[in-house]
Write a structure and sequence with these properties.
31% strand; alpha+beta
Length: 310
């Protein structure tokens, strides 16, 4: 491609060479994955090629191609693509759509649909002394019941900033916190608790998938897009703190539903059940799982801390 711009990364041991014809995309990749920048580009790196023409991104990974229809200026989408390539290179892990923090009793992982409160709760707990491991995506080894720090830059919505203190930056440097609990290569942290967040009632809006995303996932993994994309078909538009103006509720969550939700909200899609079920069984034996309906932020954080015994 003409006027090639580069960004070389090493994400959880997967070397990724981003090559694009737009400096803004390379810059977005550097900002998002600052902690993973590879100072010594490797000849065996997976090349993620992104050629932009108008609304269309032509994406190529290891000879597999797909075209995505992306809104002009939405350069941050490169983060989704880098994560997808990393997941393709680390098939031993599940890349879970969830935020996580480190606690004295292991990592606490928050999984749920978009705008269910994952980032808000993780940042609130970070401020309460539980270091942020990852925002939005947490790599998990089910069989070992461990999570990995994934120090990207957290995107904070205005309503989340208002819920915290009104002065929270809209970009939160996760890597500044995660370096001490895993860092660049993602040292494993035992998972102690898993919280499945229920979305708020009402104000549902439709958010279509990126045109071409499912084709790209199918090209890389040989199957349909997993639940992270599917969940984006219907998202809950939380606009202010009134959406959480209720008492939080916490309940035990166990059984096959846990494995189903992990599969729904993670990459790679559709792993062989013969591999998933034993790993999920080992995971459930070690991790305490909860169903959480978030409410008033202070009350929700207290409820979580009580569940953690912290």
């Amino acid at each position: 491609m003409s006027e090639e711009c580069a960004c070389d990364l090493c994400v959880l041991g997967v070397r990724i060479a981003v090559r694009t014809n737009r400096p803004a995309i390379a810059g977005a990749a550097r900002r998002e994955f600052e902690a993973f920048i590879d100072e010594e580009p490797a000849a065996d790196a997976v090349v993620l090629g992104i050629a932009v023409s108008g609304h269309t991104w032509r994406v190529e990974v290891d000879g597999r191609c797909a075209s995505l229809d992306v809104q002009p200026g939405d350069w941050a989408r490169v983060g989704d693509l880098v994560t997808l390539v990393a997941a393709h290179g680390r098939r031993d892990l599940r890349f879970v759509h969830g935020s996580s923090v480190a606690t004295p009793r292991g990592a606490a992982l928050f999984i749920g649909p978009s705008t269910s409160g994952k980032t808000t709760l993780a940042l609130a707990l970070d401020r309460a002394g539980f270091p942020l491991l990852a925002d939005d995506i947490t790599p998990v080894d089910l069989a070992a019941a461990t999570a990995f720090a994934f120090p990207t830059t957290a995107g904070v919505r205005p309503h989340t900033a208002a819920l915290l203190d009104g002065h929270t930056p809209l970009e939160w440097p996760v890597h500044d916190r995660a370096r001490g609990t895993g860092g660049r290569m993602g040292s494993p942290v035992s998972v102690g608790h898993l919280f499945f967040l229920e979305a708020a009632n009402g104000r549902v809006k439709r958010a279509p998938l990126l045109d071409g995303w499912e084709r790209l996932v199918a090209a890389l993994f040989g199957g349909p897009s997993p639940g992270r994309g599917n969940a984006a078909r219907s998202v809950f538009a939380l606009r202010d703190k009134s959406d959480f103006a209720r008492e939080p509720e916490l309940a035990a969550f166990a059984g096959v539903e846990v494995a189903r939700e992990l599969l729904r909200y993670s990459y790679p899609p559709r792993p062989p059940l013969g591999e998933l079920l034993p790993a999920a069984g080992a995971f459930l034996q070690r991790v305490t799982c909860h169903s959480l309906r978030p409410g008033y932020l202070d009350s929700t954080v207290r409820l979580i801390r009580n569940a953690l015994g912290a």
